[in-house]
Amino acid sequence: MSNVTTNFTGNSTVEAQEAASLMNFTVRRLEQSLKNAVCEMDEYRRTIVNLEAKIKRLEEAGDAMKASGHYGGWADAVNKWRKVRDAKP
């Protein structure tokens, strides 16, 4: 938005109309910025939900691997998994 410097004396209907027009323009820009921010927040929320679902699937897969007792060369990974899983807040 450009810097607009206007001297309103309050004596003219034209000046009042210009002031109202400028205020309406500013309000429309603020409303659009708010709508954009809400859309962005919704996108972030969807991303968070998707990541939480992915984490849950990974935890379930790690638990299943741990429970099976058959690591097939993945013993180090399973041991790391146990440490991370136990340290999770």
Helix content, binned percent: over 70%
* Poorly predicted segments: none
Beta content comes to under 5%
> Sheet bearing the most strands, described?
none
Indicate how many domains the architecture comprises: 1
Protein structure class: mainly alpha
Q: How far is the first residue's CA from the last residue's CA? A: 46 Å
Write up this protein.
The structure is a single chain. Helix content is 78%, strand content 0%. The chain has one domain. The chain has two helices and no strands.
Topology:
Layout: H1 13-68, H2 75-87
Features of the shown structure:
78% helix, rod-shaped, mainly alpha, 0% strand
Structure in a nutshell:
With 89 residues, this protein is mainly α. It has helices at 13-68, 75-87. The protein starts with 12 loop residues before the first helix and ends with a helix.
